[in-house]
Design goal:
Elements lengths: L4 E6 L4 E5 L8 H8 L7 E5 L2 E2 L13 E6 L3 H12 L21 E3 L9 E5 L6 E3 L12 E3 L4 E3 L14 E3 L21 E3 L6 E2 L13 E3 L4 E4 L13 E3 L4 E4 L13 E3 L4 E2 L1 E3 L11 E3 L5 E3 L1
């Protein structure tokens, strides 16, 4: 094989010439990424009519010309790429192209929605996941339920999560996530539960959370969130549980929290809040529990 370039031909006759500095270190997987960096997992790379394995090194293949086809089931390939990026062992899940998607473990599908994307539920909690949350998850556009909790995921929450506009349940708790809560969270207007607790998230609570008007349960506790509680939380009129405890929040409790008439549980303890407790909180007739730092806050 040429040490400098390979020829990749599509079924339409289009030829792409790819320059390689050292083909001895390049795998088939690397070549796929050079062909299409965004959706490399959709490419089938062929030699003599046989699909090549991603782990093969190009210097082991006696040719400088490859042919590629695009795979047909994008959702299957997306899930397999997500599985690879989060380091899920084959023994942990039965995900395979040889098994119908309806029989895959830890997912649920809806065959009647008329879309090429069928997966509505992805539940990978407590599954020893590592690495970062792949931005490819944002392409599973019919997801309604996403649970990646109780794993060892690191890095930031990808803003691509904001593309999952059908999502009703999102749980990323008990990981090692860092960085800020992306404002794109505010695009998930169907969300009813948002759980980001027990991570290492920093920065402010984005005011865009106030756009989640269907939200019933909001858990942001046990992070490193700073600055004031946004008054926009007072727009979440369906909220029943609000946990912001064990952060580094400052300033006063916004009076707007007193508008949350469905609120049952409120925990603001172990922060650096000051000032008085808004009088309207005492009018929340459904409130069953209110935890706060009694040595820092005063009753009006």
């Amino acid at each position: 094989m040429s040490k400098y370039e390979v020829y990749v031909k599509g079924i339409t006759g289009y030829t792409k010439i790819i320059q390689l500095s050292n083909h001895n270190l390049i795998t088939v997987y690397d070549l796929k990424k050079l062909i299409n960096s965004d959706e490399h997992y959709m490419i089938r790379l062929l030699h003599n009519g046989v699909e090549l394995d991603d782990e093969q090194f190009l210097n082991q293949i006696d040719t400088d010309t490859f042919y590629y086809l695009m795979k047909l089931n994008k959702e299957v390939e997306l899930l397999l790429e997500i599985k690879r990026k989060m380091n899920i062992e084959d023994a942990e899940l039965n995900w395979s192209r040889d098994i119908d998607l309806s029989e895959w473990e830890r997912i649920e599908i809806n065959n009647d929605n008329g879309s090429k994307f069928k997966v509505t539920k992805l539940d990978l909690d407590n599954n020893q996941l590592t690495g970062e949350i792949p931005k490819d998850i944002g392409k599973l556009t019919n997801l309604q339920y996403l649970d990646l909790s109780y794993n060892q995921l690191t890095g930031e929450i990808p803003k691509d999560i904001g593309k999952l506009t059908n999502l009703q349940y999102l749980d990323l708790s008990y990981n090692q996530l860092t960085g800020v809560i992306p404002k794109d969270i505010g695009k998930l207007t169907n969300l009813q539960t948002l759980s980001l607790y027990n991570n290492q998230l920093t920065g402010v609570i984005p005011k865009d959370i106030g756009k989640l008007t269907n939200l019933q349960y909001l858990y942001l506790n046990n992070n490193q969130l700073t600055r004031e509680i946004p008054k926009d939380i007072g727009k979440l009129m369906n909220l029943q549980r609000l946990y912001l405890n064990d952060n580094q929040l400052t300033g006063e409790i916004p009076e707007d929290i007193g508008k949350l008439m469905d609120l049952q549980y409120l925990d603001l303890s172990f922060n650096q809040l000051t000032g008085g407790i808004p009088e309207d909180i005492g009018k929340l007739i459904n409130l069953q529990s209110f935890d706060y730092d009694k040595d820092k806050l005063t009753k009006n």
